[in-house]
Amino acid sequence: AIGQDARALEFAADQLRVHRPTVLKAVQQDGWALEFAASELQADRDIVLAAVRSDPQAMQFASSELCGDRDFLLDAVRAHWECLKYASADLRGDFGVVLRAVRQNWQALQFAAEGLRGKRELLLEAIRQDGMALKFASEGLRADRGVVAAAVQRESWALRYAADHLRADSGLLAVAAQ
Questions:
Q1: What string of pLDDT tens digits covers the 178 residues of the chain?
Q2: Contact between residue 66 and residue 43 where contact means Cβ atoms under 8 Å apart
Q3: Which residues contact 154 (CB under 8 A, 6 or more apart)?
Q4: Residue 139: how many CB atoms within 10 A of its CB?
Q5: CA–CA separation, 169 and 38 (whole Å)
Q6: pLDDT tens digits for 78-100?
């Protein structure tokens, strides 16, 4: 049954939930099957990576140890940027981990620790993809004319996330109008 419907693992006997080949096959088909795997397999690097390759939301079922393991998280984020959402607080504050995720997709910035949202280099990396990344910037960077100009050049609607005084800046308004 698991071969046809990975979520059948939910109703499987305990000996199947701990059976590594069965669980691996299930999570490869549907990452959410990880929710029903035995806890020791939710801590298995290969099982969890297979699950997040199938569906990055499966990361929420990974063990807390894996969510706090930098090497594992770098691999998980390489598989899908959205895995950053489930990283430990420490790793959401790790510049290298967050940068790897942001390089995949600017939206990863929303999962970064507050302190990293104030890092100009990180924000500019996100803005290179989409100016709307300004939405996730610290207040300080939303008030930085250079950062806002870069964002507005990529996406005029990003001006809505700029500090009040910059939303009234005629130069930025001209850039947004182009």
A1: 455 566 677 777 788 888 999 999 999 999 999 999 999 999 999 999 999 999 999 999 999 999 999 999 999 999 999 999 999 999 999 999 999 999 999 999 999 999 999 999 999 999 999 999 999 999 999 999 999 999 999 999 999 999 999 999 889 888 888 8
A2: yes
A3: 127, 128, 129, 130, 131
A4: 10
A5: 57
A6: 999 999 999 999 999 999 999 99
- Measured CA angle at 44 (ends 42, 45), to 5 deg: 120
Residue 89 burial (CB count, 10 A): 9
Angle between helices 145-154 and 170-177 (to 10 degrees): 20
SS3 readout for 129-169: HCHHHHHHCCHHHHCCHHHHHHHHHHCHHHHHHCCHHHHCC
Greatest distance between any 2 Cα atoms in the chain = 68
- How far apart CA 1 and CA 7 sit, in angstroms, is 9
CA–CA separation, 162 and 150 (whole Å) = 11
Determine the Cα–Cα distance for residues 108 and 165; give it in Å rounded to an integer. Answer: 27
> What is this structure's pTM?
0.89
Per-residue tokens: 156: 């005029």
Sole residue written with tokens 């996330």 = 161
Pair of tokens at residue 3: 């071969």
